[in-house]
Each structure stands twice: as C-alpha cells, then as structure tokens.
Amino acid sequence: MSHQVRAVVARGKGAPVSLETIVVPDPGPGEALVRIEACGVCHTDLHYREGGINDDFPFLLGHEAAGVVESVGEGVTDVAPGDFVILNWRAVCGHCRACLRGRPWYCFDTHNAKQKMTLLDGTELAPALGIGAFAEKTLVAAGQCTKVDRTASAAAAGLLGCGVMAGIGAAINTGNVGRGDTVAVIGCGGVGAAAIAGANLAGAAKVIAVDIDDRKLATAGKLGATHTVNSKETDAVEAIRELTGGFGADVVIEAVGRPETYQQAFYARDLAGTVVLVGVPTPEMKLELPLLDVFGRGGALKSSWYGDCLPSRDFPMLIDLYLQGRLDLDAFVTETIALDEVEKAFERMHHGDVLRSVVVL
Ligand SMILES: NC(=O)c1ccc[n+]([C@@H]2O[C@H](COP(=O)([O-])OP(=O)(O)OC[C@H]3O[C@@H](n4cnc5c(N)ncnc54)[C@H](O)[C@@H]3O)[C@@H](O)[C@H]2O)c1
Ligand SMILES: [Zn+2]
Ligand SMILES: [Zn+2]
C-alpha cells in the first residue's frame, strides 16, 4: 500500500517551491512512516532549492521535524506506532570505523529509508538530509526517529532535529563548555542563539553574544547572553577581550560561516582556548592566518557537525530540560505557518526577520 499526501517540492534550481501530491510507500524492513506535526524552515532547505547541495532535483524539502509514528516495517523494535518522535539525520550504523571506535557521532554510514517517495508520475524524490518533512507523512529509517515526551510542543521539539541541536551541541559537545567558562558566540541566528542557550545550560559564567543585527542581540539576551556586542559598531575582538579581563573567552563559537568572523573567533579566545566552527562556509572561501599564531596561541580549533550530537542520548535529555523550563525552545519559534507558506518563510529568513518559521500541520 502507499499513501498520497501533500508536500513541498523543489523542482529546479532557484525555482520557487510548489505544493504537490506525492506518493509515500508503506514502511519496508527497518523503516518507519511518520505523520508530521511540525517542521522548521532551515537555511539548508533553501540551499537545496538553490542547487547549492547537489543537482538531484526534485527535492522533497524539510528536515527539522517532529511527528507521530504511524506504522513501522519488519524488524523495527526501537519505535512503535503512536510514539511521538523527533526526526534526525544521524541514524548511526553501529558497524563503521567511527562507530566501532566509540565515536558514533562521526558515523560514516548513517541510515535513511531504502524505498523512494515519488511524484504522482513516478519520478523519484530526493528528501532533504534523508528526511523530507514538509509533508503530511514521510518515510524514514526507523533509526531516524527518536522517541521523546509527548507533552512537548511539536513546533519546539522538531527544532532539535537540526539547527537548534547544532547550536546547543556546538557548545556542550564540541566546545565542551563547563561551569565557570567564558564563552563568546559570533552570529546569533537560530544556531548561534542555540549555542548561547547551550553555554548557559552548561554553567558558563559569561556568555557574550556578537551579531551585526540588534534584533538578534535582543533575542540572545533572552536566551541567556550576559553581554551583547554589535560588531558593526564595535570591534568584536577588542570587545570580547575587554569583557574577559583582557584575556579572551575560553570558548568562541563561530555561527556565521565566514572567514572574517572565523578570524575574529580565532583572536577573541584566550590562550589555549577553543574555537568551534559551526557556521558552514561556501566552497570559494579561504582563510589566511599566521601559522606562528596558530602554533603560539595553542588550544583547539574544532568544527562541529550537527553539534556532535547523538539523537538517542541528546534529544530526550533536552526535551526533559525544556519541559522543566530550563531550556526555552519556544523562544526559537518566531512564527508558525502553513505548508503552502514555505516560500514566504524563505523570504523572511533571507531578510533576517526570524529565528525559525515552523510549518505546523
Ligand atoms: N554545523 C552544522 O551542523 C550546522 C547545522 C545547521 C546550520 N549550520 C550553519 O550555521 C550557520 C548559521 O545558521 P542560522 O540558521 O543561525 O543562520 P541565520 O542566518 O539565522 O544566522 C546568521 C546570523 O549571523 C549574523 N551575521 C551575519 N554576518 C555577520 C558578521 N559579519 N558578524 C556577526 N554576525 C553576523 C546574522 O545577523 C544572523 O543573525 C549557517 O552557516 C548554517 O548553514 C550549521
Ligand atoms: Zn557508523
Ligand atoms: Zn537544517
């Protein structure tokens, strides 16, 4: 059996997305069919639409989602119909080199559904990040579903599926922020704001938010930034040093993805401090730094993919903190929209008007 549902499809490079009827197969072995309740609009969806990821059009967009498992295929034991789940793009294999060395967050063979979802004429769809959740239902590998407490709001919970997890994880997993640390976050969009919340959760003594947009700095303040710096008006490195007794921050998180902000992060950290790059650069970007400074300043220069998260470990824990009122996931939901408003949400994202627009079904 298969299901015909409405979904947001990107048919060609740069073309506006369209609402289409797609065909979703019943789950095969190891797969789960999920009824989507909410899905956030992420920059990566726009990158797909613009052909910036690859040319495998048509894409089924959407990947920051929460929903309810409707049915599961043969051999699925971790989730069952009726479970409220957050979808993830890191269903680890358990067998690859990284998994066997006990570092599954670097897994080289993550799972997606084997069967294809299609357009009505049979054309195969490429789901964004192996998810495709701007749809009433989607088909994923069962390992892409993480069961969490049903009482969480779907719009807030789904955001853990990508950008918010990337930011929180950049602070708590990759940056290893600890109690009493000084932390600076450069770029306070959805990801940077989440890094601020993460640093706060980890017990950072000072959390300095840096952005060129005062609206973002205002939200950063609500999420626990102790200081804000508008780097359009003030030199970011000088300001961070001044706020940290002249030393620089223990951990600086770059959440823009540009050489000049990376350079700020590099020089704004304390000697032997840590830089975490979570912003994603484009292929033509280059970084030039005196090698003597790389050596002489010591410490660690790290990149963070998906916040080095393990969905099975991190999602339920963060949802519990959310339900206890210790992590304000609702603050990331700027607006809720309908399935046919994704194109408008891309526009608002482009203008920096939102942390997240979330499609609610
Ligand atoms: N590593 C990962 O796993 C991962 C996951 C999701 C997103 N990302 C990346 O993280 C980055 C941020 O994503 P987002 O959703 O928060 O985007 P966003 O557009 O919402 O936020 C970017 C922020 O950076 C600010 N900014 C722009 N130029 C700046 C500058 N020169 N100095 C200081 N601030 C500046 C903007 O005002 C904005 O607030 C993107 O590059 C995105 O692709 C990475
Ligand atoms: Zn693996
Ligand atoms: Zn994303």
Bound molecules: nicotinamide-adenine-dinucleotide, zinc ion
How would you spell out the order of helices and strands? Answer: EEEHEEEHEEEEHHEHEHEHEHEHEHEHE
Q: How many strands, which pairing sense, and closed or not: the largest β-sheet? A: 7 strands, mixed
- Termini separation: 23 Å
- The Cα radius of gyration reads 20 Å
Structural notes for this entry:
The chain has 361 residues and is of the alpha/beta class. The protein has 11 helices and 18 strands. Strands 3, 5, 6, 9, 10, 17 and 18 form a 7-stranded mixed β-sheet that branches. A 6-stranded parallel β-sheet has the order 13-12-11-14-15-16, with helices on both faces. Helix 4 (163-174) packs across helix 5 and helix 7 (236-243) packs parallel to helix 8. It starts with a strand and ends with a strand.
Helix and strand arrangement:
Layout: E1 2-10, E2 18-25, E3 31-40, H1 43-49, E4 59-60, E5 64-72, E6 84-87, H2 97-100, E7 118-119, E8 126-127, E9 137-141, E10 145-147, H3 154-158, H4 163-174, E11 182-186, H5 190-201, E12 206-211, H6 214-222, E13 227-230, H7 236-243, E14 249-254, H8 259-268, E15 269-277, H9 291-296, E16 300-303, H10 311-323, E17 335-337, H11 342-350, E18 357-360
Parallel strand pairs: 4-8, 11-12, 11-14, 12-13, 14-15, 15-16, 17-18
Antiparallel strand pairs: 1-2, 1-4, 2-7, 3-5, 3-9, 3-18, 5-6, 6-10
Helix pairs in contact: 4-5, 7-8
Bound molecules: nicotinamide-adenine-dinucleotide and zinc ion (2 copies).
The site of nicotinamide-adenine-dinucleotide has 29 residues, from helix 4, helix 5 and strand 12.
